[in-house]
Design goal:
CATH class of chain C: Mainly Alpha
Order of helices and strands of chain B: HHHHHHHHH
Structural class of chain C: mainly alpha
Number of helices of chain C: 6
Strand content of chain C: under 5%
Order of helices and strands of chain C: HHHHHH
Distance between the termini of chain B: 26 Å
CATH topology of chain C: Four Helix Bundle (Hemerythrin (Met), subunit A)
Largest interface: A-C, 36 and 40 residues
Oligomer: heterotrimer
Helix content of chain C: over 70%
Number of helices of chain B: 9
Structural class of chain B: mainly alpha
Largest sheet of chain B: none
Number of domains of chain B: 1
Strand content of chain B: under 5%
Number of strands of chain C: 0
Number of strands of chain B: 0
Chains: A mainly alpha (66), B mainly alpha (222), C mainly alpha (242)
Radius of gyration of chain B: 18 Å
Shape of chain B: globular
Largest sheet of chain C: none
Helix content of chain B: over 70%
Chain lengths: 66, 222, 242
């Protein structure tokens, strides 16, 4: 079969390109997801802290008022 | 309409005072044509190569010079004043477009004369048929350049990026323009290259419409 | 949306692709004139279809972004441009690999391949703009404008390249329209390949789009964090004051 090598090269390039691109996207998504999760945890912690601070401020205010 | 004429008159008057943009563009065209003469080594009287060289000069000189009307506003900090004025964004676009067009036409006149000289074309050649072709090309290019000029200012390496954006979009005008210019230089009547003219006209309409409608989205302060 | 849809679409892609590969290498007969190399055609054409369709999507997203202003449209446009670029590059490479054994030259100025080259340059410009302008707040609008003008330009490019080709007949002659698909099995194979690449393209688009949406959410959460920090500092200052 003449020119089989050309056929093989063409299809190899197509598959290599697709596989590489999918891998690239997958790893990028994984990195972004970890970062997002980290930030969301930080956000929740800060929300709790803020809630505590707010209640503290409220009790101080009511104490000084009375 | 009054905003358009006001801005246009300001730009033309500025240019009339110093003439630096025009002179720079003319010298740039001279330089490009000289380089092309050496590089292409075409036989004398070859209209095809001459037409091609002329359009190359137009594109590369245009890439550098066509945006000067608008860039100046940013460089001098005038863009805020322009945007705060009651002028319609489309009017600003048209004014800057016409200014760019005028600069490019002046450069092209010089380039054409140099082309006839360098490529040993007959001076009695029918340049009148070439005129409209070059004008249409310059109009389309000026329309694109004015629309995308904002990129040159606000993006890093913008002056490298701008030709990368303009030239591929301009390709159909380039193809049609060179074909029409070649035919015009060879002395053929308009009918012979009417298809090229139609494509050039389509490009102009497309670029002008695009610029007119989309300019307001790209022009902001920065 | 999310990972479940992406997973399902990924599985679908694998399925249709497998079918397509089977048809290309086992089912379809070898073409008489060009021989075995002609099978490249069954993936070359769908790549071109995806490249052009993605470009149209870039422009449409651009229009919606300029009209509605929602970040979703900007992200969709960017994702479409990147995916389109991948397939556009594949068209050029497979076209080149196909041309060499058939016509002895790596590159032919065939009007379709030339148009694809110009499309590739348009994509390159768009992506370069995105890459270099990432800190410019208005990058989405600039990119949208570029995408719209470029896409509107494509029909004119096609016509003008055909015109240009009439001046260069000395270079290799264009292949004729349907590429001589006489056998119905060939048409079936082509259709299945087109479907396979459409699904693949959509899946890649979804994946890329997801990364951009995640980035948008990261920015959003970051902003919320900054606001909260500011509030805490503010309250701390108030407490000290009283």
């Amino acid at each position: 079969m003449e020119n089989l090598s050309y056929l093989f090269v063409a299809y190899s390039i197509i598959f290599a390109a697709i596989v590489l691109y999918v891998m690239f996207l997958w790893r990028r998504q994984a990195r972004l997801d970890t970062r997002l999760r980290g930030l969301e945890i930080q956000l929740n912690e800060m929300r709790d802290e803020l809630a505590q601070d707010r209640s503290k401020a409220m009790t101080t205010a009511t104490r000084s008022a009375s | 309409m009054s905003a358009l004429t006001a801005i246009l008159r300001k730009d033309l008057r500025l240019e009339l005072r110093t003439g630096e943009s025009t002179i720079a563009l003319v010298f740039l065209s001279l330089l490009i044509l000289t380089v092309l003469t050496f590089a292409l080594n075409a036989p004398g009287g070859d209209t095809a190569t001459a037409a091609g060289a002329l359009w190359v000069a137009m594109i590369f000189a245009g890439t550098i010079g066509a945006t000067r009307a608008l860039i100046g506003e940013w460089e001098n900090g005038c863009i805020r004043g322009l945007l705060l004025s009651p002028a319609d964004r489309a009017a600003i676009y048209c004014a800057k477009l016409v200014a760019s067009f005028v600069f490019m036409v002046l450069a092209e006149v010089a380039a054409t004369m140099l082309m006839v000289l360098f490529f040993n074309l007959d001076f009695r050649i029918r340049l009148l048929r070439l005129g409209p072709v070059l004008a249409m090309g310059a109009l389309g290019f000026a329309a694109l350049a004015t629309l995308l000029a904002a990129i040159q200012v606000r993006v890093r390496a913008g002056d490298l990026l701008l030709p990368l954006l303009i030239v591929p979009v301009f390709v159909p005008a380039l193809i049609a323009g060179v074909k029409a210019s070649n035919a015009a230089l060879a002395g053929l009547p308009f009918a012979a290259f009417s298809q090229s003219l139609k494509i050039l006209a389509a490009c102009d309409i497309l670029f002008l419409a695009g610029g007119y409608l989309l300019f307001e989205h790209v022009i902001t302060e920065d | 949306m999310g990972t479940k849809a992406a997973y399902r679409l990924g599985v679908a892609t694998l399925g249709v692709m497998t079918a397509a590969i089977f048809m290309v290498f086992v089912y379809v007969p070898t073409e008489a004139q060009e021989g075995i190399v002609q099978r490249i055609f069954y993936f070359h054409v769908p790549c071109a279809w995806v490249a052009f369709a993605a470009f149209a999507l870039v422009a449409i997203s651009g229009v919606f972004y300029l009209w509605f202003g929602q970040q979703v449209w900007d992200d969709l446009g960017y994702a479409a441009a990147e995916v389109g670029m991948v397939f556009c590059t594949l068209v050029l490479i497979t076209g080149s690999v196909w041309a060499k054994p058939i016509w002895g030259a790596w590159w032919t100025w065939d009007s379709r391949l030339t148009t694809t080259l110009v499309l590739w340059l348009l994509y390159a410009g768009y992506l370069a703009l995105r890459a270099m302008a990432d800190e410019v707040p208005q990058v989405g609008r600039l990119a949208a404008v570029v995408g719209i003008v470029a896409a509107a330009d494509v029909p004119v490019i096609i016509v003008s390249v055909r015109l240009w080709r009439t001046i260069h007949p000395a270079v290799i002659v264009t292949r004729q329209g349907s590429h001589g698909l006489e056998d119905p099995r060939m048409i079936a194979t082509l259709l299945v390949s087109m479907a396979a690449f459409t699904v693949l393209g959509t899946w890649l688009l979804m994946l890329r789009f997801a990364t951009l949406r995640t980035t948008a959410r990261i920015i959003n959460v970051g902003r919320q964090l900054a606001l909260m920090e500011a509030e805490m500092v503010d309250m701390g200052a108030q407490a000290r004051g009283s």
